[in-house]
């Protein structure tokens, strides 16, 4: 039991360390594209949900959101950071949902298919879409005036702008997740004690 808990804490700490590294080192987690950032850090959180289950995925998503929220205050990289992503509802909650939903989806799919590659491929897509859909939806709901000012549009046309971002950013992010998540999940399952469908009880606290 102690070994299982220590192993979990070690793996989870490694994931958090990777999230910190991706958040602070340019191009490892976000690719700056002017007033927006192309996100690839969601892959780490999705993998955490797949390997460690939905509760730990939720925790890793919270960690990602908290780091992003902290950086929006201390080291903003765009106008969106200063005007939109200082709202913790927009910055933290969607990231928590990424890890939680990824864990739930993978567990359900693996129970149905017993196919790690197919389950992780689908989870990668759904996890990435979760991030895109909830972040943009929350921006529209909770920061429409601020986002409209950043994009030099009116709140009336903001939805069209956000839909455009969903296409230009969301699709590449989704493709990246669909490709990398199953590859990395296969490697991690092979070279760690973690096995799909065999999450130890200690992981479920």
UniProtKB/TrEMBL annotation:
TM annotation in the entry: 7-25, 88-109, 121-143, 163-189
Membrane keyword on record: yes
Keywords: Membrane, Transmembrane, Transmembrane helix
Keyword Transmembrane in record: yes
Gene3D superfamilies reported for this sequence: 1.10.1760.20
Entry-linked InterPro entries: ECF_trnsprt_substrate-spec (IPR024529)
Pfam families: ECF_trnsprt
GO molecular function: transmembrane transporter activity
Domain of life: Bacteria
Coiled coil start-end: none
Protein name, as recorded: Substrate-specific component PanT of predicted pantothenate ECF transporter
């Amino acid at each position: 039991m102690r070994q299982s808990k220590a192993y979990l804490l070690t793996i989870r700490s490694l994931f958090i360390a990777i999230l910190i590294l991706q958040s602070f080192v340019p191009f490892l987690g976000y690719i700056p594209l002017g007033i927006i950032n192309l996100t690839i850090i969601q892959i780490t959180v999705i993998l955490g949900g797949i390997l460690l289950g939905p509760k730990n995925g939720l925790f890793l998503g919270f960690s990602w959101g908290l780091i992003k929220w902290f950086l929006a205050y201390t080291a903003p990289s765009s106008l969106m950071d200063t005007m939109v992503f200082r709202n913790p509802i927009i910055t933290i909650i969607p990231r928590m949902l990424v890890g939680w939903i990824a864990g739930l989806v993978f567990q359900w799919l693996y129970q149905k298919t017993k196919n790690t590659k197919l389950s992780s491929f689908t989870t990668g897509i759904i996890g990435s879409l979760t991030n895109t859909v909830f972040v943009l939806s929350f921006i529209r709901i909770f920061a429409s005036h601020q986002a409209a000012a950043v994009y030099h549009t009116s709140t009336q046309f903001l939805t069209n702008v956000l839909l455009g971002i969903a296409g230009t950013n969301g699709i590449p992010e989704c493709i990246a997740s669909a490709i990398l998540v199953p590859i990395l999940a296969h490697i991690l399952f092979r070279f760690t004690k973690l096995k799909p469908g065999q999450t130890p009880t200690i992981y479920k606290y």
